[in-house]
Amino acid sequence: MNLTQKFLLLLLFVLSHHAESSSIVKFLPGFEGPLPFELETGYIGIGEKEEIQLFYYFIKSENNPDEDPLLLWLTGGPGCSSNTGLFLENGPLAFKSEVYNGSVPSLVSTTYSWTKMANIIFLDQPVRTGFSYSRTPLIDKPSDTGEVERIREFLLKWLNKHPTFSSNPFYAAGDSYSGMTVPALVQEISKGNYICCEPPINLQGYVLGNPITHIEEEIKYRVPFSHGMGLISDELYESIRSACKGNYFNVDPSNTKCLKLVEEYHKCIDKLYEYNILLPDCNMTSSDCFLYPYYLLNFWANDESVRDALHIKKGSIGEWVICSRSNAYNNDIKSSVPYHMHNSINGYRSLIYSGDHDLVVPFLATEAWIKSLNYSIIHEWRPWMIKDLIAGYTRTYSNKMTFATVKGGGHTVENKPNESFIMFQRWINGQPL
């Protein structure tokens, strides 16, 4: 084989490898006709030998993709697929509300997609989440700090393959457990931008919804939240506060009075859906249940025609699951508050929002750690409006941080997509809420 033939074979290998790593998707099973937006799916190899293959969906902005912000969306868990963000929260497609009949669940366009003003990468991470997989058995289990490094590596490699987006303003975003990784990721990107010979990422800020920040402290706010929402009586609240001294969930066994009161507390709240106390705690297999789209998503993502359309590598994963709870994971960031402080000092913008009916991470807990940063208030607490209706409440701080509640929203604000759309649209455009 001569040198020219060797070169052509190498070129063919590189081109075929690139074709396998990312693909444009124009049609999706369940959606009628061509997609009304530009969708790319693909894998980015992580590590020296690229054993870890992180799967992503990239949707171009429907406005001005060349100049609009680039947003990386990380769903929480850890281990929950970014499909939940894409199809159930802020993406351009949603499941049609109809009873599952055995065929591919139907998809419809949404009016509230954040892709109307931003390019968004929805990333499945850590490895073995969603469609992400590992070519070899994992030596080390994923961790908060390890994921931060891997996600930054993903971004650098993704931008290297998509150089036209290198100058777009970049924002990291997510909700729930992403509150642990996103602030650390912002700090890591910020530090990496000063390392020699690596292209800088045009980092501008971050967005977090109902973020887990320091869970051991945040769970202490569930009882005050329950009292404020009228879920427990004044008498029970005063008694439990006195007996438990703020420690309601890891109670000293010798404190029998506190244990009994905590038992009374759970009798009042255990039949609620803790992710949104306005909703019943129902079986998601019921078409009347608010969670039914999660049920449909499971059928959709496990359909072979869907996997073919998304260009999922054959044999890379078995059954697709929404959240890979069984995966071993090291929660090695105890609190993300120091990362918020560092990011504020470095001048990055942030939007922190809370569905105000979330019992898992109550807005009271989020307010508490924001106040602990000790930044002065620029704009005092006020309602933010959509037309003549109150959509929530907001306050802005001197560290470029905006805090907002979404009235009636739950843990991931998926039941208030129009409100979260308008909130994000105003913030990303630099307008007051």
From TrEMBL:
<comment type="similarity">
    <text>Belongs to the peptidase S10 family.</text>
</comment>
<dbReference type="InterPro" id="IPR029058">
    <property type="entry name" value="AB_hydrolase_fold"/>
</dbReference>
<dbReference type="Pfam" id="PF00450">
    <property type="entry name" value="Peptidase_S10"/>
</dbReference>
<protein>
    <submittedName>
        <fullName>Serine carboxypeptidase-like 12 isoform X1</fullName>
    </submittedName>
</protein>
<feature type="signal peptide">
    <location>
        <begin position="1"/>
        <end position="21"/>
    </location>
</feature>
<keyword id="KW-0732">Signal</keyword>
<dbReference type="InterPro" id="IPR001563">
    <property type="entry name" value="Peptidase_S10"/>
</dbReference>
